[in-house]
Please model this.
Amino acid sequence: MNHIVIIGFMGSGKTRVGKRLAKDFDLPFIDIDRVVTRKIKDIFDKFGEPFYRALETTVIKELIKDQEQKVISLGSGLPMQEQNEKYIKQLGTVVYLKGSYETLKERLENSKSNPDRRG
Model:
């Protein structure tokens, strides 16, 4: 399937850009981080990063089979996992969002979704 896949560092605007593209192209929007965290609350804290990353991989493998075109925002760590490279390529067209150091720093310092800023 030829989904539109958004990747980039935390704070690069993947969710914002993905939602806008989905609206502009009249396509559904999927945020992998939200899909995974909806499946198990506090995954990262309870089960650790390897378990969380395995769930991300499972979700993208499921999306490869999905015949309805979507805009998909990938978690910033998902493309860093070597085993995911082939799955990401199978998903569709990949768009990399790059932000300047200053912009990313500012966004992450002010973000409640940044794991380092959670209470």
Observations:
- The first strand starts at residue 3 and ends at 8.
- The first helix runs from residue 14 to 25.
- The mean pLDDT is 86.
- Residues 21 and 71 are 7 Å apart (CA to CA).
